[in-house]
Give the backbone structure.
Amino acid sequence: MPISSSVTSIFSTRTANQTITESKTQKNPKKLWKEFWYENEVCCLFADSNVGKSILAVQIANNIAKSLTNGEKVLYYDFELSQKQFEMRYTDSKTQEPFNFSDNFLRVELNGDELNNYCKETKKSLDEALMEGIEANINEYNSKVLIVDNLSWLANMKNSATTAGKLMQKLCMLKRKYGISILVLSHTPKRNLGSVITQNTLSGSKTLTNFFDSMFAVGMNLGDSSLRYVKQIKVRTGAFKYDTHHVDVCKIEKNGPFLGFTHIGYATEESQLDGSKEKKSASKSRRGRKRSITRRREKSARQIDYISKLVDESFEDFNI
């Protein structure tokens, strides 16, 4: 029985030397944000809740949007903040002046009722409907950069870890089909904040890490609540520059209407986790308690000496 042409075309085969020669004609991928994320990668940014990953993602999105030409857009799928919450975050509380984002930065919200109606009418699954909607947006807005905030929320809509895996498979297919760059945000499960961040820290990591070309994470400085550090977790393009011995240290601050990460230097991950201020405070508190106990003991000893002296004097008077 002859093999159909559709089967023989499933794979594309060439020698290793041909692969290198043909790839020479392609441009090297550019950095989208330092060494953390490159063009044509599906990348993951993950962190604990309320650490600031959405703040950083919006900052990255706007920086990329400002550099785009030819009518290209950044699509930011925001499943975390409401429209009002976003407005308040990027407005100066004193002057009420809003931040002026690039017009190439498009923020996308999900219409849950429309999604449910579409799934009922077309008999499509949740992940199928979402991916059809995202693909339609890519074509409509000529998008080359996609940010999804966040994967954990999408998976929880169906309360299924397999949904996240299906969504990731489809996002990878969109990357190959359109040559786009995708950043996916995700939460970490409950963990010891004093431990180093690894691939295993990511929620559902055993399933998800294989889908990503690159991964980076945001951790908290345990000695200063305003400081964060950013660390590379997985790298396929470029250098592994920000490992546990050399993390990017930033401060979350609001300059006028813009809330973002400000780079302040580099450090080891261990130094960010030692909680030096808390340790000093605890040590100071312990020393204070020890001094208080010592003073009470000394006072008690003096009282006992005084009472003993009175008793001795009474006995002396009695003997006389």
Observations:
- The first helix runs from residue 5 to 8.
- The longest strand covers residues 258-267.
- Confidence is low (pLDDT under 50) at residues 276-286, 314-320.
- DSSP finds eleven helices and eleven strands in the chain.
